[in-house]
Amino acid sequence: MSSVIQPRLLRRMTVRRVLELLQASGPSTRAELTRLSGISAPTVSKAVGTLLESGLLEEGEAPPISLGRPGTVLRLARNRTQVIGVVLDARQCTVVAAGIDGTLHDDTAIRFAPAQTYPALLDQIAEAATELMQRPAVRTLSLGLSIPGLINRREQRAVFSPNLHVTDGHSPDRDLSRRLEIDCSMHQETHALCLGERMYSGSEPLDDFAVLEISTGLGLGIVTGGRLMEGHSGLAGELGHLTVVPDGRLCGCGNRGCLETVATDSALAQAVSDRLGRTIDVDEVARLVRSGEIDAEAELRSVCHYLAIAIAASINLFNPSTLFVHGRLFDTRPGLFAEVCDLARRRALGPSVADCSIRRAHWTKAQGAVAAAIYHILNSWGPIVDR
Ligand SMILES: [Zn+2]
Hints:
By secondary structure, the chain is an alpha/beta fold. It has 3 domains: 2-63 and 70-76, Arc Repressor Mutant, subunit A; 81-195 and 366-380, ATPase, nucleotide binding domain (Nucleotidyltransferase, domain 5, 2-Layer Sandwich); 203-361, Nucleotidyltransferase, domain 5 (2-Layer Sandwich). The chain is built from 12 helices and 14 strands. It starts with a helix and ends in a 7-residue tail after the last helix. The chain binds zinc ion (ZN).
């Protein structure tokens, strides 16, 4: 029995290794893949054949090296095969197509305000995804959903989202798989952002890092030893619901004074809206401050004070080599991100912060959802190969 299973498993692991190498090193020839993988040339060739057949790879012409004939270069498919990324957010849902190499086809993005009932929301997403799946001469392999709040990985169910209750208790990945007849997967948004940072970072190896998401809620995604830290059921990283103001503002989770009520883009927007007597979002706050129409220094000072605490706590707890912060409030004025980093450095433990680079996140939630869809495809080809 095992003699039949082992070669099959090994073949799948080789396929996955080839995919990972192409993702990390970009377009490569068969010879380069053989050298980089340390696997025999016929085995690599077989894996490449399987991947070409499944549409995950495309062949192109490599630039000629000196006098030789141009060779054939292999790359992850960009145009003929696609994945779909879906970002579900409290105010806006985005559905976008991308190549297997992660290239976002921005012109395909469809945006809408999420419906208030689950069946209507599912209709909206299915309609947008169907439109993208009908693009001519393109095959869709997978759809990745990025969702805020808690997702129970063992039950594969969105259990509770403090800022978007419409998905609570549901499994939109399962429901969409049935409707669209493609493979759909669901990922917590900070976990998806971690996959995005890892996939799009290219040649820079990222094995121990964290992403602090501060746009709507506040969540922490942690990658340690190259693996996403999900906890027992996938609920890890909810730093945003740590109480920091014991009798503070009511949070979407039902508690009071949670970190996410005072240290996020939405906390800043809320504080400025309260003062102005009208509701504005963080982009509008940034625009008004930049144009000199309002002064939001007091609100910014307060939000940055708590954000520095969140950054310091993340560094002290998880010792990441890099902490990426994903938020838009830094666009309010030049130098603000550096100021927050200085505050965080003063609050964190010296040796921990000396070991950590604090940076703004490079990638969007849409890229996170796309990376999650691609990660799901990779996983379907077998276990992670330790390097
Ligand atoms: Zn809370």
